[in-house]
């Protein structure tokens, strides 16, 4: 029995698992073995940190080396050498295929597989930032130019003939707006008078039926008030047509021209701002740093000069057409207004109706609504 135990003692001692005082397995030998293996591998390969999984000497399974990120510093190899199994060797070969060792021992990682070259994609945020930068710079230059002109320090480009026409247009617009307000007031008052005449005519007609002794007198007054109300409605139609035409001229045609004038003035301010900037750069020194700035400023000045010339030409054309249209419209409307007022106060009903026919004015019949779309069909 003692001889048998002596023969089995080496195997039992090798398979013995030490236990700590708390009853846990002592893995210090295994950790030490892993540490020796880590230091034993060549440092120049830059391999990942290794971890050894052992299953005892009785196990028939081969050793497996699992790879993880190695964060330690390279150390000289130890004398002990571990020969990994076939599976571990294949994993190490796969890990090392993506690595190239430089001459100085520095690790260089290369990617396996095809390399895709993509075109540079523009960043929308950078484009917006560039637009904001250009807008801020342009606003700063224009604001500085406006302040300089207000203070009398900066020079401005003036087209005397065009500026005079613009001033006349603005002054006429104010006068036409005043005429429009007065005509609207007259229309409101005339409408109230016509409404009162209708009510008075109805009251006279009612009394004419109920008062036999004053039947004729109430009847005459009723007919007169009704006739005046009818003529008042005809005059009211002419005045409203006059108001609509003048309103279109003032608030649409003239206003559209003034919008073009505002764009022209903005272009003029930008032109003067970049002109002043270019003049300041030309007065300064010319060297390698300032020449690109001067060239860029010259390019921007030329672009704004073209814009300014185009807007000035547009304003001139619109002012010319506006003057022709204004004369034609106001001529017809003033003739209409005069003839209608004169015929009404002269009591010439036929002349008043003829005036409306001359200008193709159709009066809306009182108490009759517009036909529905089904009736129009």
Automatic annotation (TrEMBL):
It is found in: Golgi apparatus, trans-Golgi network membrane. PROSITE patterns: AH (PS50870). It holds the Pfam family Arfaptin. It comes from Castor canadensis. GO terms for cellular component: cytosol; trans-Golgi network membrane. Residues 1-31 are annotated as: Disordered. SMART domains: Arfaptin. It comes from the Eukaryota. The gene is Arfip1. This is Arfaptin-1 isoform X4. Residues 157-357 form the AH domain. The keyword Transit peptide does not apply. One of its GO terms (molecular function) is phosphatidylinositol-4-phosphate binding. The lineage of its organism: Eukaryota, Metazoa, Chordata, Craniata, Vertebrata. One of its GO terms (biological process) is intracellular protein transport. Keywords: Coiled coil, Golgi apparatus, Membrane, Phosphoprotein.
